[in-house]
């Protein structure tokens, strides 16, 4: 009997685990939805969002579970492929979303969430489409890239916020000429070169939004295109304004250089705002966003985002769709931005933070918005992946080991190994 009781206990625990990992119906007709994410830092905020939703939908409760970033994708994939998993879950746009959508694991949202057509820019929905063109996700957190600057340093040196790429170079020259460090940038962590500098802050204008990218995707041009090489050459113009020993300076080091006021500018994403304010509450800073090649000229911005998607095998599609409509609402967008102190692609949100308000204006004024980084989604689907080739190439370029043309050749040759349109 003891052995049987032990066996029964194991069976009971396994059954209980299965129930906890999937949506359940309980109580007086209530439905519980399971929502998975990798944003452990967002748990308190999502508890507030969910409480607001549940107050208006008394028959539905939502359980938000966040896993470690390093474990999330494997846990999710195992559950989804096993035919279970959560009712809805966090996904990155493009590659991750398309992998699940194209294999039939996601529910299309076309016609089910009316706010998709009214509360988002068309460009903000590109990353939540499957290869079939259907919409599978609701974008939420987004960010822009630009150049943070110390307002006191600029006042000391008699400088104004740069309004163009030539302006930025002139400002850097003036700061260096005054004996100060212009940019708090390092190249030890290569992703900052690829994402923040090239593909985020400056590349969208150098490459005129989607102009070069769309042609490259179709195989009508490639990374050897003079426009792409010139964009790399432009970026290299910043090198003389980096701190001494920049090759050994890490991302966290650069954050400290700026917040400790040992460098006048910092190139990065809008997620830094809260961190900078916490690290140095007395730091008076602003952010220049959008750098046309000539003053008053057109500029383009990159605004990558994450999203929430629906498991095609959810047992409660009607309830999930109610929650997805909530996630697409201006009400949620306002709560999301205010609580997490970040931006959202949901239109109509009123930003109280001056930099977020400026970013929203600059997005509206931009010639175009690129909702992705150039190594995504197409050029990052196989190995060698585009983002790795980009990052390693830029690191070598700033170290003086590769010319811009050689970096472009390495990227082209790497992607051409598996990307069919480049094989001709």
Q: What's the number of domains?
A: 2
Could you tell me the number of beta strands?
11
Question: What percentage of the residues does DSSP assign to strands (E)?
Answer: 5-15%
CATH class of the largest domain reads Alpha Beta
| CATH architect. name of the largest domain | 3-Layer(aba) Sandwich
Average pLDDT, all residues:
91
CATH homology-level superfamily of the largest domain: Periplasmic binding protein-like II
Uncertain runs: 1-27
Element string (H = helix, E = strand): HEEHEHEHHEEHHHHHHEHEEEHHHEHH
Enumerate how many helices there are, as a single number: 17
Helix content: 40-55%
* Alpha-carbon Rg, integer: 24 Å
Q: Can you tell me the CATH topology of the largest domain?
A: D-Maltodextrin-Binding Protein, domain 2
N- and C-termini, Cα separation: 71 Å
Structural class: alpha/beta
Q: What profile does the largest beta sheet have?
A: 6 strands, mixed
